[in-house]
Write a structure and sequence with these properties.
This protein has 117 residues and is mainly beta. The protein has no helices and eleven strands. The protein is globular, with a radius of gyration of 14 Å.
Length: 117
Amino acid sequence: QVQLVESGGGLVQPGGSLRLSCAASGFTFSSYAMRWYRQAPGKERELVAHITNRGDITNYADSVKGRFTISRDNAKNTVYLQMNRLKPEDTAVYYCNVVILLLGAYWGQGTQVTVSS
């Protein structure tokens, strides 16, 4: 079955960095685009970054452009989110997502990122 397992969250001071990982299994990882979403308390889940299956095209929410970088390693079935110059407003639970043809959307359990001094 499809599984997405996020890791790498934690508490970091403003201006700091974190790298999130999402390990995927149960589908042909290299065939699918991957996404990172986040959800802050009391807010809707929002798309943060997207990467095509070959990793050649990436897109970002305006709020994270220039600070976050999405990447993937198809040999390791893993997608990453490098987050630099973190701000308190980046505090959220971060989720990995894949949409598989004819099966639908799958989500990981999420990893908490807290940016605070």
